[in-house]
Amino acid sequence: MTRQTQTHAHPHTHSTSTRPRIAIVGAGPGGLICARVLQRHGIAATVHELDASPSARDQGGSLDMHPETGQLALREAGLLAEFVDLARPEGRQMRLVGRDGRVLFDAAPPETDPGDGNPEIDRGQLRELLVRSLAPGTVQWGRKLTRAEPLGDGVHRLHFADATTVDADLVVGADGAWSAVRPLVSDARPVYTGVTFVETGLDDADVRHPGLAALTGDGTMMALDDNRGFVAQRNSGGHIRVYVGMRTAEDWHRRAGIDLADESAVRDALLAGFNGWSPDLLGYITATDSGYTNRPLYALPVPHSWPHTPGVTLLGDAAHLMSPFSGMGANLAMLDGADLARALIEHPTVDQAISSYEKAALPRSAEAAEGAAEGIAGAFAPDSAAQALAHMTGHH
């Protein structure tokens, strides 16, 4: 089966006489927002997603949506009211705890205007909202892109693992850190930041782990010192997602002779690394309900840009993968998606739209990525406790 991306085409506001075949690779927030804004203006796009289904894997933690980026994109997509219904304003609470377990800083959000500021939403809920907003069949699930082949005149042929191909006038690489589209425009590869998170979690935390739930608060709790730390984050449904962070070798577990599938060995190694920290904080390691997942953090070189290439562009992590210490990754991806869609609506050719979009997106992503690099360097430093306290008190 060869399925062309114009299958769901409708009359639209594009001023060219032909309908561009738009293939978006990746159903993350940026790719889905792009497809949604295009569809609102009668322009068809197909999203090709590696996941077998919307619920094939855990989508990750909670996101704070910023008014001038993520929320702006949701407004452009006509989904802001639905987002506000799902969002958790109380999730904006930020708490800093010392390695001795004492609360050093606590900023609870004001109770006025729940839509104000940066309310939180689970990644899974956000994806569900975006997928539900699209015309049936827009997202093609279980589509692993193996290579993209230039055919000339900006047209590319996408080759998928199921032996099907699709030709497109515009390929949008919204396929994340290890993008299969990126090599069409850039040789850049993600680089290890020097920091690894080991993710774990607490289920039904208020009932099963009341002490840790109280220490976490309603939003995000951080305890950072001496090149390591804990980040605990409230999600919906009583779940607390925990990241045990450390500045360490990318293959730290191999060097220590640890099998990542051996939970007790991982737990013992983590506890040894936090020797002398408060027993309350060590509970985040020992009370796990979900085992341990090793997550080395990567980032693209800063700044990352590419020469204008007809028929292809990038958005989100494919364009500007950065550490989570920017707080901007998903927000920028969504703004990218909305801006690219808007450019395609407003410009007479795909080529002009790509140029306009990249002119706006590349400088702002470079600025955010620079901030993210500084953020992770400060959070995992010898004096990170003092840096984190100065940063939080300065921002509030």
Automatic annotation (TrEMBL):
<feature type="binding site">
    <location>
        <position position="123"/>
    </location>
    <ligand>
        <name>FAD</name>
    </ligand>
</feature>
<feature type="region of interest" description="Disordered">
    <location>
        <begin position="1"/>
        <end position="24"/>
    </location>
</feature>
<keyword id="KW-0274">FAD</keyword>
<feature type="domain" description="FAD-binding">
    <location>
        <begin position="312"/>
        <end position="369"/>
    </location>
</feature>
<feature type="domain" description="FAD-binding">
    <location>
        <begin position="22"/>
        <end position="208"/>
    </location>
</feature>
<comment type="subunit">
    <text>Monomer.</text>
</comment>
<dbReference type="InterPro" id="IPR036188">
    <property type="entry name" value="FAD/NAD-bd_sf"/>
</dbReference>
<feature type="binding site">
    <location>
        <position position="57"/>
    </location>
    <ligand>
        <name>NADPH</name>
    </ligand>
</feature>
<dbReference type="InterPro" id="IPR043683">
    <property type="entry name" value="TetX_monooxygenase"/>
</dbReference>
<dbReference type="Pfam" id="PF01494">
    <property type="entry name" value="FAD_binding_3"/>
</dbReference>
<protein>
    <recommendedName>
        <fullName>Flavin-dependent monooxygenase</fullName>
        <ecNumber>1.14.13.-</ecNumber>
    </recommendedName>
</protein>
<dbReference type="InterPro" id="IPR002938">
    <property type="entry name" value="FAD-bd"/>
</dbReference>
<keyword id="KW-0547">Nucleotide-binding</keyword>
<keyword id="KW-0560">Oxidoreductase</keyword>
<keyword id="KW-0963">Cytoplasm</keyword>
<keyword id="KW-0285">Flavoprotein</keyword>
<feature type="compositionally biased region" description="Low complexity">
    <location>
        <begin position="1"/>
        <end position="20"/>
    </location>
</feature>
<comment type="function">
    <text>An FAD-requiring monooxygenase active on some tetracycline antibiotic derivatives, which leads to their inactivation. Hydroxylates carbon 11a of tetracycline and some analogs.</text>
</comment>
<keyword id="KW-0521">NADP</keyword>
<feature type="binding site">
    <location>
        <position position="64"/>
    </location>
    <ligand>
        <name>FAD</name>
    </ligand>
</feature>
<comment type="similarity">
    <text>Belongs to the aromatic-ring hydroxylase family. TetX subfamily.</text>
</comment>
<feature type="binding site">
    <location>
        <position position="317"/>
    </location>
    <ligand>
        <name>FAD</name>
    </ligand>
</feature>
<keyword id="KW-0503">Monooxygenase</keyword>
